[in-house]
Amino acid sequence: MLLEGLKPGLRIEGLIPAEVLTVIAVQWHGTDALELTYKTTAGSLGQQVVFRKDEGKLRIAQSGSRAFDAPASEFKLAAEAQRITLAGLFDPMIAVATSDVRPLPHQIQAVYGELLPRTPLRFLLADDPGAGKTIMAGLYVKELILRDDVARCLIVAPGGLVEQWQDELFFKFGLRFDLLTNQLIDANANFNVFETHPLLIARMDQLSRNERLQTQLRETEWDLVIVDEAHRMGAHYFGGKLEKTKRFQLGESLGEVTRHLLLMTATPHSGKEEDFQLFLTLLDRDRFEGRSKVTADTSGIMRRMIKEDLLTLEGRRLFPERIAETVPYELTRLEYDLYEQVTDYVRDGMNRAERIGGKRRNTVGFALTVLQRRLASSPEAIYKSLVRRTRRLERKKQEILNGTYRETEPTIDLEGLDADDFSATEIEQVEDELLDAATVAQTVDELNAELLELAELTRVAGQVRDLGTDRKWSELSAILRDNALTTDANGRPRKLIVFTEHRDTLDYLRVRISSLIGRPDAVKTIHGGVRRSERRQITEDFTNNPDCQVLVATDAAGEGLNLQAAHLMVNYDLPWNPNRIEQRFGRIHRIGQQEVCRLWNLVATNTREGEVFTRLLLKIEEQRKAYGGKVFDVLGEAFTGTPLRTLLMDAIQYGERPDVKARMHKVIDQSVGDGLKELLEERALASQRFSEADLAALHAAMNDAHARGLRSHDIETVFKTAFTRLGGRIVQRERGHYEITNVPAHIRAGTHGPIAPRYGRVTFDLAHVPSDDPRHAELLAPGHPLHDAVMDETLRRFGGALNAGTVLVSPTLTQPHLLVGVIEEVADATGATIARRFGYAYVDSLGTVTPAEPAPHLALAAAPDTPEVTAAKALPWLADAEDRATSWIISHRLPDYLAQVRSRRSTELARTRELVTDRLAGERDRLMFDARVASKKELLGEKPKESSESLRRKAVELDHRLRARLDLIDQQALMSAKPPLISTAALVLPAARG
Predict the structure, then answer these.
(1) Where would I find the Helicase ATP-binding domain in this sequence (predicted)?
(2) According to the 3-state scheme, what is the secondary structure of 696-707?
(3) N or C: which end of the chain has fewer CB within 10 A?
(4) Residue 892 class from Cβ within 10 Å (0-12 exposed, 13-18 middle, 19+ buried)?
């Protein structure tokens, strides 16, 4: 009877439909039921109770489980479809080979040396601006998708960057991400929008401010979350209290719902070590718990590379030199009189605001500094600002008289402003609101008095504007004539970018520059009110149209735009946040820039804030000579004790006092002089750089990847063959380009995303996807929905040939062999997969396994239908060849594979264990000490800041967290190899000798 014959190693069919099971163990329960433990062909274990009445359904599987009777053409087609589908398991750089990018050494090292080896990932990518972090993220996402490690990915970015992310991922990597728009949310009103869209890009503030979306987000699970400009997710200590921003709380939520978390920012460190370590808790709460002034150890959790240290594959410096030059000038007599009068108005308002105190003090003070900056910007900006402010205060007075006035003045977070928490567009909007509305005057009489002042200021400003003797414009026009209005060595007009702080100045400059050049179309403008799609179009025109020579922009153009078509830049207005200087410079100092980048900073030396900037720029130039362009990357971090904004406000309010001047000079000298030196030394220690040995190793790795990886010719051949057999039509248009005239409905009905019924131009070779070709050809490669759908349908239609096997003939073998495709896997004790690989191997009659080339079946011919071939299928050793191959792989190959994975991962886990233990145990012990001190005070009748009971409770919680984390690390460190999975097999015979 069959049930009595069941024993370990026997293969059976009938228990699970279309599945051959290997018996692992049998345990009888009485005489009519047994507990069967088995292994599936996929390698997973299962158990089932089998009753006597089920005996008729079972049968012994065919010897060796394969009949080797599949047509060779179907086997080879399915084998190629399987190999391409599993390419991520054997091609170490599959994303590079199938994406429209030419990655640089630091990008390859980031993705393949830092990100991919870490699983699960918790990492901060903090390379300098312009280093191509979006490219690195795209490569990482595509690698994980092709390795079948990521199916659900969420990208969170500032609002102004989400469409750029969507474009880059589609055009460079063929990845189709949806944008989380209001329309998308409304269309999914009855569903969780995060559940229905597995590849999604969301605006940071859309998530941080919408509680309903946050609730839905917390109900979902993601494989990978990427946060761009992650430094905006800040938290701060105020006194002894931790204040978490909404963005920071969003970051905490994201970390809880994802397996992999990648944070990206070029400015991770605001200079405050406490805030930096709070930020790092988003990656590892245990490792950075509590307040510590000791510099954080970011090994294994952060990568930081400096522009000036980046190299090309040939070993040349990637970025050219950066040179900044101060252009000093003095205001004319009339301009200076206006400056003094407006400054007096601003100072008087500031002094009155200080006496009021509270939130109004910050609001009014900020509004008045905006007015002062517009005064420094241009006669046009100050005149129009005074006119708008007058109108707003007139309206406020009328509302008070009518009894309809309601206090609705907006407020401003100065800390957030200095910490660079707001986008340039957000700052433009809040400045406009505050400038017009914020005032100390609250009564009609007070408003009348202020309106009288404004009337006189407006009259003088109008006089200066109408006179047309603008000294600042004179300096800019000289720079334009000497540089932008000349041609380069190739006879092409040079391109130049002018940055201003204000829309009024931007419009003023557009008119004047157009007049100077003599062509209105030679000048383009970008500001916060320009929509993202328009910004892209303007950028394209500026980059590719030789007649478009000058771009005038506010800081809205300093976020996310690539403007390296220009190498000349003017700061018409200097920003009060020094981070903005680097962000602006970074628009032209980017990958692909071939020219030395020059920056001119215009400064009115006979003004209070001009004196601060003159001193600042002098110290920057001194440090630039010593350290090169690196100084621009750390300016924001230099002003931590005293923000630059504070220095400038002090200059306006008290600038004539010698003691204030001396203090300002001292702060600048310490921050930019001594401070920059320390920061640059710290960055040098924390940063990575490439040596000649690193580049040589990288070249070797890329050559190895090329040798082992997929080739575009193979992808093309398989796709065209499979697509045609599935009913599709593809015709060649010109060399390398094809047109797909029909995609069958059964292919479009898959789960790979939107697939068009036809494609006008596709290619399989990156060489035929030039970025500047208006006839854009889509790259058909792994990751493209049509390509992947065709591979899936091929495996569904012809995959049976892989299970049945076929017979092939080799011109090189002298004895029959079994060719097998093998998947090997390493997992840890949590059940998580740590590493997987796929490859082919030959098995001889003794069960010895030898590696085969990446696609051995391609070089093998179909066996003829002869009695000799039929007899070969019945060779006795084939019956257990796969079992013997599995045993050989387990004993000879898996130990080395497991050792490789374990070595890399164990080092990282040991370091994490040490850092987590030091931090949590140290915080626990500190809390217990504080609890003892508090307890003594309580016994003496004193009231401590925090009760001893509360402190002990926190210490116990940290102890529990430490134990739980160490248990998790123990499980992650316990790694084992799963039994190898043989995915297919073919009998390979030696060719007949003639």
Answers:
(1) 114-286
(2) HHHHHHHHHHHH
(3) C
(4) exposed
Residue 673 DSSP symbol: I
Q: Return the beta strands (E) in 408-512 as ranges.
A: 496-499
DSSP state of 69: -
Read off the tokens for 733.
Answer: 């248009």
**Residues whose CB is less than 8 angstroms from the CB of residue 948 and which lie 6 or more positions away in sequence, other chains included:** 931, 932, 934, 935, 938
How would you list the strands of the sheet with 178-179, edge to edge?
A: 178-179, 199-203, 153-157, 222-228, 258-264, 122-125, 302-303
Distance CA 166, CA 169 (A): 5
DSSP class per residue in 327-340: EEE---HHHHHHHH
562-620 pLDDT, tens digit each:
788 898 999 999 887 777 777 788 888 888 888 888 889 898 888 878 887 787 777 77
φ/ψ (deg, to 5) at 838 = -135, 140
Nearest CA among 542, 478, 468, 538 for reference residue 508: 468
For residue 193, give the H/E element and its range.
helix 193-196
Domains and CATH numbers, the chain: 2-61 (2.30.30.30), 106-289+299-305 (3.40.50.10810), 333-467 (no CATH), 710-800 (no CATH), 806-994 (no CATH)
Choice among 42-56, 120-134, 860-874 with the minimum mean pLDDT = 42-56
65: left (phi over 0), alpha (psi -120 to 50) or beta: left
- Reference 164, options 138, 199, 193, 125; nearest CA is 138
Predicted TM-score (pTM) of this structure: 0.77
Q: Quick one: which H or E segment has residue 615?
A: helix 608-627
How far, in Å, CA of 158 to CA of 139, rounded?
Answer: 21
Distance CA 553, CA 499 (A): 5
Asked if residue 488 lies in contact with residue 364, where contact means CB atoms within 8 angstroms, the answer is: no
- Quick one: which of 91, 82, 75, 14 has its CA closest to 48? 14
Q: Whats the size of the chain, residue-wise?
A: 994
Task: Classify residue 248 as exposed, middle or buried by CB count within 10 Å of its CB (0-12, 13-18, 19+).
Answer: buried
Our measurement of the distance from residue 636's CA atom to the centroid of its chain's CA atoms, rounded to an integer in Å, reads 22
Residue reference for tokens 């932008």: 484
**418 token code pair:** 């200095």
Asked if residue 776 has pLDDT above 80, the reply is no
Q: What is the pLDDT of residue 541?
A: 87
pLDDT in tens, 280-300: 999 999 999 888 777 888 888
CA dist list (Å): 745 to 748, 757, 761, 788: 5, 8, 20, 15
Residue type at position 372: Q
Residue 156 CB partners (closer than 8 Å, separation 6+): 201, 202, 203, 204, 207, 225, 226, 227, 228, 250, 254
Residue with tokens 């640089």: 104
Token digits for 899? 């050792």
What φ, ψ does residue 824 adopt, rounded to 5°?
A: -115, 145
* 3-state SS, residue 322: strand
For residue 454, give Cα distances in angstroms to 367, 457, 733. 15, 5, 70
Q: What pairing do the DSSP bridges indicate for beta strands 199-203 and 178-179? A: parallel
Bridge partner residues of 201 (DSSP): 155, 179
Contact predicate 350/653, CB 8 Å: yes
Provide the 10 A C-beta neighbour count for residue 724. Answer: 11
Cβ–Cβ under 8 Å, residues 976 and 835: no
Per-residue confidence band for 434, with pLDDT thresholds at 50, 70 and 90: low
Peptide bond into 120 cis (omega under 30): yes
Q: Which amino acid, 165?
A: W
Per-residue pLDDT averaged across 79-106, rounded? 88
Average pLDDT over residues 269-288: 86
Instruction: Say if CB 571 and CB 613 are below 8 A apart.
Output: no
**Which two three-digit tokens encode residue 518?**
């003599």
